[in-house]
Design goal:
Blueprint (H helix, E strand, L loop, with lengths): L1 H16 L1 H9 L11 H19 L1 H18 L4 E2 L9 E7 L6 H15 L5 E8 L13 E8 L1 H4 L2 H13 L5 E3 L3 H11 L5 E7 L2 H15 L5 E6 L4 E9 L1 H6 L4 H12 L2 E8 L2 E7 L9 H5 L2 E3 L5 E3 L4 E9 L3 E3 L2 E10 L4 H13 L8 E6 H31 L2 H8 L1 H15 L3 E2 L1 H30 L4 H31 L9 H34 L3 H7 L9
Parallel strand pairs: 1-17
Antiparallel strand pairs: 2-4, 2-5, 3-4, 6-15, 6-16, 7-15, 8-13, 9-10, 11-12, 14-15
Helix pairs in contact: 3-4, 3-18, 3-19, 4-16, 4-19, 14-15, 14-17, 15-17, 15-19, 16-17, 16-19, 17-18, 17-19, 18-19
């Protein structure tokens, strides 16, 4: 979008400097232009003239109203909700189902089938499919206790998508001992890239002891459970599970001339399998894998009686050099930044992400953490904070560059300041439009503000440059304000209207495809309305009130020239 906007601006600038003058020379040079105004221009001038006169007579009132609007927008701004990106309205949902570690694939399938059976006659859903189990080499590593339920929302369900998702969430809540995560395909993938977790909020707890991590994780989960807007809350299922544990007797192995590596290789072949050759069948090759039968891999006696080759050619049972027994161990151990961690994840519904994160941080801060343990927050809000910082810096640089370019155009610091007053005037409409449109600021909205600043300064430049040219001719200030404003009225309205009309298709309606561009268009459209309206009143009021400070120095030089001698300026 940014590249398209920049290229279109460059193309239009090139056309304005080359093609437009050429067409004017061909089509307008030998023609008499109409000297009378169109009926629309007359109506616009009739409507604007009384307002302009009031602005000149009562500049304090006009400036007071503009200042009050700016202060009101600054009061509203901190209360607006904050999100990284608007919620995507795609109809394809990818819903994760997570059972406790150790549950079988059949149990995972039964949980999904229960939800599918409950929703199969609901007209709000077009299609439901379930995927569980993962093949060897699959990049999505997960156990058989994990599955994904793909749901396609119908047109009827899309009319009230929020309610449809709530119905789906309630069906998942009926499954005991099952953690779920509801979201769209795009949002899930973005969350995974941002935090490694398929959730908008990821509270990561770091430490050394797994048991202590699980204890802290339960405390964090309990603290977050009562926060309004939190949904799909779950603690990462790191629980002790029953395992076959093999402990090597290093002294006994040394007596037989065996190393721990050799013993581990034998056990790995028996339990995990080892490809020893390949078989060609129907022009396809398959690995020939050697390992124990499924029933034997869970039998302590069979494992203990595995024969191990010694260096002298003797075969001894594994039980002579290792202890084989049942025990308990962690289902999984996750690490990040060279530290063990456990994650408490959640999504947000019916509330903005920024306010929910504030409540989460406040509650988590109240938990006393042992030494060596710490908490980090990840997810969409972290990306939102980083993007906000970047856009603020980029916006400040853009404003500085705009100011320099305007100064080169008008050659006057006071005039530059007058033009830059359009920025807070544009901010008023942008903030109010966001507040009326849902009260949520996203990264797209902030990009809209930066775009708006560039468009808004153009109107001020048209008006101030006209004032300066007339003042340089020695015309009285009041006459300059009236004639300059009336002359530039149509040009300012057309430039603002052309930009605003381009945003109308994005503002109207909703649905998939407009989620990112619509907040940007709302900001630009609202900001252009207030910026254009206030510019046509505020700038004349400022020149009327502070005219003696704004008159260019060259105006005095022009007035001192004796025009009777034919001097040329």
């Amino acid at each position: 979008m940014g590249m398209a906007y920049l290229l279109s601006i460059l193309a239009s600038t090139l056309i304005a400097l080359t093609l437009t003058p050429a067409l004017c020379a061909l089509l307008l040079a030998n023609r008499r232009l109409p000297s009378t105004e169109t009926w629309l221009e007359r109506k616009v001038h009739q409507f604007y003239r009384p307002a302009l006169k009031f602005s000149i007579r009562r500049p304090q009132v006009v400036l007071g109203v503009a200042l009050a609007g700016f202060v009101a927008s600054m009061i509203i701004l901190p209360g607006l909700g904050k999100v990284f990106l608007p919620e995507f309205q795609d109809r394809s949902l990818v819903n994760a189902i997570i059972l406790l570690p150790g549950e079988s694939l059949d149990a995972t399938d039964q949980a999904a089938l229960a939800v599918m059976d409950a929703l199969k006659n609901d007209q709000r859903f077009d299609a439901i499919a379930f995927r569980s189990g993962f093949a060897q080499g699959d990049p999505d590593v997960a156990g058989v206790n994990f599955g994904e339920l793909d749901v396609q929302i119908s047109e009827e369900g899309g009319k009230d998508r929020e309610k449809t998702v709530e119905v789906l969430r309630k069906e998942f809540e009926k499954l005991p001992g099952v953690a779920t995560n509801i979201g769209g395909f795009i949002s899930h993938r973005m969350d995974e890239i941002l935090s490694g977790v398929r959730s908008a909020i990821a509270v990561k707890i770091y430490g050394s002891e797994l048991e202590q991590l699980r204890t802290i994780g339960k405390q964090v989960q309990s603290a977050m459970s009562g926060i309004p807007g939190i949904v799909d809350l779950q603690l990462e299922p790191q629980v002790p599970v029953k395992q076959i544990q093999i402990q090597f007797d290093r002294d006994a192995a040394a007596r037989y001339g065996l190393t721990v590596g050799e013993l581990a290789e034998t056990i790995e072949t028996g339990l995990n399998g080892k490809a020893v050759s390949q078989v060609l069948e129907k022009q396809q090759t398959f690995n020939l894998v050697v390992w124990l039968q499924d029933s034997s891999r869970n039998n302590l006696d069979v494992i203990g009686n595995l024969l191990v080759d010694t260096p002298n050619g003797q075969k001894i049972p594994l039980s002579q050099v290792a202890k084989v027994d049942y025990g308990t161990g962690p289902s999984t151990i996750n690490r990040e930044n060279v530290s063990r961690l456990i994650v408490v994840s959640a999504n947000v519904a019916r509330k903005d992400l920024g306010s929910v994160i504030k409540d989460v941080r406040d509650r988590v801060k109240q938990i006393q953490l042992p030494g060596g343990y710490y908490v980090q927050f990840g997810g969409q809000f972290q990306a939102q904070e980083q993007a906000t910082q970047t856009l603020i810096i980029a916006g400040a640089v853009a404003i500085a560059v705009i100011s320099v370019l305007i100064y080169f155009a008008v050659k006057s610091i006071p005039a530059t300041v007058m033009i830059m007053i359009n920025l807070p005037l544009a901010l008023i409409g942008g903030v109010i439009s966001v507040a009326l449109g849902g009260g949520i600021i996203s990264v797209a909205s902030m990009v809209g503000f930066i775009t708006l600043f560039g468009v808004a300064t153009r109107n001020g430049l048209l008006l101030v440059d006209n004032y300066n040219n007339r003042l340089a001719e020695g015309i009285a200030l009041k006459q300059v304000i009236v004639d300059g404003s009336m002359e530039r009225l149509v040009a300012i309205l057309l430039t603002a209207l052309s930009s605003a009309l381009g945003m109308v298709p994005l503002v109207i309606g909703s649905g998939a495809g407009k989620e990112i561009l619509q907040p940007l268009a709302v900001v630009v459209l609202g900001g252009l309305v207030t910026s254009t309206a206030l510019t046509l009143l505020v700038l004349p009021a400022l020149y009327s009130l502070f005219g003696k400070f704004l008159v260019p120095k060259k105006t005095t030089q022009v007035q001192e020239i004796d025009v009777t001698q034919g001097s040329v300026v």
